[in-house]
């Protein structure tokens, strides 16, 4: 078996933007003749250490790639079962899916994938160059590669790891190797045993290869005082359960009774003590650069690139303290990470700020005592203060309205907001003329109300500049009646166009999500109604025939029960199809659909609701009808669930140029404003649907007084 996933990679600056960058480059890669790269994983990209290698590789490709390209990933799942697994279907599948769109480069990752490609080199994607990546040198195969192929091996220094372990813990007599039971893991267990031959008299080895995951944890929790743990990889336990990423390491670190040593740098900080660890980041960077060079045709002739070897010794300060390992015993030049900061590191900013404050105060006292502050310095400070004020208000348009004269003074930025270029201050009527006609009455009324009540003015409105540009502005002001004759108002204006556009984009996205949800519901409902219910009905008919064919007694009773169960199952599937997508809203209209929904409630043990219809328009837009039906459906469902057998009423009427839906029940009610009350998904969905259509939704409820849900949606002009 294999699994595929496709990504498009291009340049980017930060690793956390890998997914976003790939999505943004999807269109560009699809429109151009982008080269295709097939990444063939040994066990799947979610298995450690390949999960971390895949992340580093994609992040580096996004950073250095000069052009977009298509990155296709496949997993050689049969690698967990060894060389005896049947690979012929996998080989045929890979050749088949890439026949029409050939790949430009094949990148097997890990030992099993490399062996698979080398074994079928002449039959797997013939003519495509190969980059063997993240493969240990012992698993690479022939020293000479075919022309055009390259290899980037790694070296796991098992002997060096064991020597470093004994140097730090010289009293160690037993080594517990945490490793899985897959064929590749058993290969590495044999390599570790071979490296231990010179230390046989000093060190005894045991492993978890024949243990389940829980048995491994139990063994690690009761190890003796002269024992150390070597964590390699844990892909598959004895029971055949796979373990992705580093789940086994995190659980092991919680229960281990002995220090843990590892082989890769990403394990640092997850429970291992440290040592000369192989850098997955360096491996990902070298692989990415080699991949780009091969696609560009600038790589040297085929052959192995210098192997990635373990780097400078690095240790976890917390694990050293946990197991009593002194820093003086570490190798020369070792790097220590996760050290807890001392007093200076913790309070350095405060100490420096205090020193700066003391120095500034001393300077000010000296200046006051010596009386050397001159007029020039005062003028300079005043000028600097004005510059700082201008910087602080760079995004604000400051204004002053003198009510008696009608003049409006504004800062330069305010003039640019409204498109004024003259020197003379504009009049209030000129300012209002720049506001769109739809918003102008509201702004004028809010200003008059603010002056009359000496209250703060707030408003948001649209302006149309002379060049045709439209912007959203937000203004605040406060009257100063005693400042000048006739009074004045001081305020500030800020441009909120980007915020409004972002809100509109979010609203558009929500609308599309709801539309997609309804379309998917309709598809599932249609499949249930047209396919599943038909088949169930046919089975019910066959069961009825079987009942007539079998003799009386227990066989006929069994057949009768089977036929009855199939009939009920068919009814349940039909009801589920109706709940997913009530096609009656489209076929018969909103009013008839609500009537049918009310008639369905008695089937749930509830008295049918009272339905009132008044002043309905002859035609209701489909999106408004579906929205109000979903609100009614959710409200009735909540009434059945929480109101018990209490009376429920439903009313739909045309009100204020829109449609108003009211659902009332006499149930126990609740307090909508109660602190700590978790928001319900149904209520949030109703608010979202109504808000997307420009409507309003109110919930009126109190303990013991029932619940009323009111939804109003404006109607656009529709032909009658």
* Largest sheet report: 5 strands, antiparallel
Q: Uncertain spans, ≥5 residues at pLDDT below 50?
A: 1-32
Q: If you compute it from the alpha carbons, what radius of gyration comes out, rounded to the nearest whole angstrom?
A: 37 Å
Known CATH architecture of the largest domain: 3-Layer(aba) Sandwich
| Annotated CATH topology of the largest domain | Rossmann fold
CATH class placement of the largest domain: Alpha Beta
> What structural class do the secondary elements suggest?
alpha/beta
Distance between the termini: 60 Å
Strand order of the largest sheet: 16-15-19-18-17
- Give the number of domains: 5
Provide a count of the helices. 22
Could you give the count of β-strands?
A: 24
Inertia-based shape = extended
Which percent band covers the strand fraction? 15-25%
Helix content: 40-55%
Give the integer mean of the pLDDT values: 80
Architecture blueprint of SSEs:
Blueprint: E1 4-9, H1 18-24, H2 26-31, E2 36-41, H3 50-64, E3 69-75, H4 88-97, E4 105-109, H5 111-119, E5 131-136, E6 150-154, H6 158-168, E7 174-178, H7 183-195, E8 204-207, H8 213-221, E9 227-231, H9 247-255, E10 260-261, E11 274-275, H10 280-296, E12 303-304, E13 314-316, H11 317-322, E14 335-337, H12 343-370, H13 375-392, E15 396-402, E16 408-410, H14 412-418, H15 428-434, H16 440-453, E17 457-464, E18 470-480, E19 488-495, H17 497-549, H18 554-580, H19 584-588, H20 590-600, E20 610-614, H21 622-642, E21 648-655, E22 658-665, H22 681-692, E23 696-701, E24 707-714
Parallel strand pairs: 2-3, 2-4, 5-6, 6-12, 7-8, 7-9, 9-10, 13-14, 20-21
Antiparallel strand pairs: 1-3, 11-13, 15-16, 15-19, 17-18, 18-19, 21-22, 22-24, 23-24
């Amino acid at each position: 078996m294999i699994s595929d996933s496709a990504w498009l990679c291009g340049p980017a600056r930060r690793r956390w933007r890998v997914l976003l960058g790939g999505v943004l480059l999807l269109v560009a890669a699809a429109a151009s003749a982008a080269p295709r790269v097939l990444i063939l994983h040994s066990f799947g990209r979610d298995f450690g250490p390949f999960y971390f290698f895949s992340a580093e590789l994609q992040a580096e490709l996004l950073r250095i790639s000069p052009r977009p390209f298509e990155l296709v990933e496949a997993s050689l799942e049969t690698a967990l079962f060894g060389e005896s697994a049947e690979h012929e279907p996998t080989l045929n599948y890979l050749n088949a899916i890439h026949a029409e769109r050939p790949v430009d480069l094949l990148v097997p990752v890990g030992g099993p994938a490399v062996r698979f490609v080398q074994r079928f080199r002449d039959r797997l994607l013939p003519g495509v160059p190969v980059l063997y990546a993240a493969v240990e040198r012992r698993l690479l195969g022939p020293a000479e590669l075919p022309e055009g192929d390259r290899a980037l091996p790694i070296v796991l220094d098992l002997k060096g790891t064991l020597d470093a372990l004994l140097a730090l813990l010289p009293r160690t007599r037993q080594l517990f190797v945490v490793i899985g039971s897959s064929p590749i893991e058993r290969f590495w267990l044999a390599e570790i045993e071979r490296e231990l031959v010179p230390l046989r008299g000093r060190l005894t080895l045991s492993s978890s290869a024949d243990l389940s995951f829980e048995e491994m944890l139990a063994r690690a929790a009761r190890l003796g005082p002269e024992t150390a743990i070597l964590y390699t990889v844990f892909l598959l336990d004895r029971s055949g359960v796979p373990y992705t990423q580093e789940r086994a390491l995190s659980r092991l670190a919680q229960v281990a009774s002995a220090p843990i040593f590892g082989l890769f740098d990403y394990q640092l900080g997850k429970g291992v003590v440290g040592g000369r660890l192989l850098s997955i980041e360096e491996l990902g960077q070298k692989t990415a650069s080699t991949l780009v060079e091969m696609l560009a045709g600038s790589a040297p002739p085929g052959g192995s690139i210098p192997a990635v070897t373990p780097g400078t010794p690095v240790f976890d300060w917390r694990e050293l303290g946990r197991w009593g390992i002194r820093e003086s015993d570490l190798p020369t030049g070792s790097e220590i990470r996760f050290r807890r900061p001392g007093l200076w590191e913790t309070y350095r900013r405060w100490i420096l700020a205090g020193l700066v404050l003391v120095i500034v105060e001393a300077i000010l006292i000296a200046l006051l005592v010596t009386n050397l502050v001159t007029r020039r310095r005062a003028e300079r400070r005043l000028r600097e203060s004005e510059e700082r004020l201008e910087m602080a208000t760079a995004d604000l348009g400051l204004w002053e309205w003198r009510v008696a004269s009608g003049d409006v003074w504004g800062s330069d930025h305010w003039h640019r907001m409204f498109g004024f270029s003259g020197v003379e201050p504009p009049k209030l009527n000129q300012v209002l003329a720049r506001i769109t006609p739809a918003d102008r009455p509201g702004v004028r009324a809010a200003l008059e109300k603010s002056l009359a009540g000496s209250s703060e003015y707030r408003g948001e409105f649209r302006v149309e500049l002379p060049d045709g540009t439209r912007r959203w502005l937000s203004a605040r002001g406060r009257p100063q009646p005693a400042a000048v004759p006739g009074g004045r108002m001081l305020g500030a204006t800020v441009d909120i166009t980007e915020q409004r556009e972002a809100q509109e984009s979010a609203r558009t996205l929500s609308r599309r999500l709801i539309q997609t949800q309804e379309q998917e519901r309709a598809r599932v409902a249609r499949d249930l109604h047209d396919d599943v219910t038909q088949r169930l009905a046919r089975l019910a008919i066959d069961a009825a025939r079987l009942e007539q064919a079998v003799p009386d007694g227990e066989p006929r009773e069994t057949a009768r029960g089977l036929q009855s169960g199939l009939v009920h199952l068919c009814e349940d599937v039909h009801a589920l199809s109706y709940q997913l997508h009530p096609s009656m809203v489209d076929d018969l209209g909103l009013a008839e659909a609500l009537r049918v929904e009310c008639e369905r409630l008695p089937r749930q043990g509830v008295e049918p609701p009272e339905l009132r219809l008044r002043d309905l328009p002859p035609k209701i837009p489909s999106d408004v009808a579906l929205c109000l039906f979903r609100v009614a459906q959710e409200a009735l469902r909540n009434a059945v669930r929480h109101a018990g057998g209490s009376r429920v009423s439903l009313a739909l009427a045309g009100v204020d140029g829109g449609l108003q839906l009211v659902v009332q029940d006499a149930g126990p009610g609740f307090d909508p404003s109660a602190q700590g009350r978790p928001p319900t998904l149904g209520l949030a969905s109703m608010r979202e649907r109504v808000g997307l259509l420009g409507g309003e939704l109110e919930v009126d409820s109190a303990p013991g007084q029932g619940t009323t849900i009111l939804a109003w949606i404006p109607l656009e002009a529709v032909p009658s």
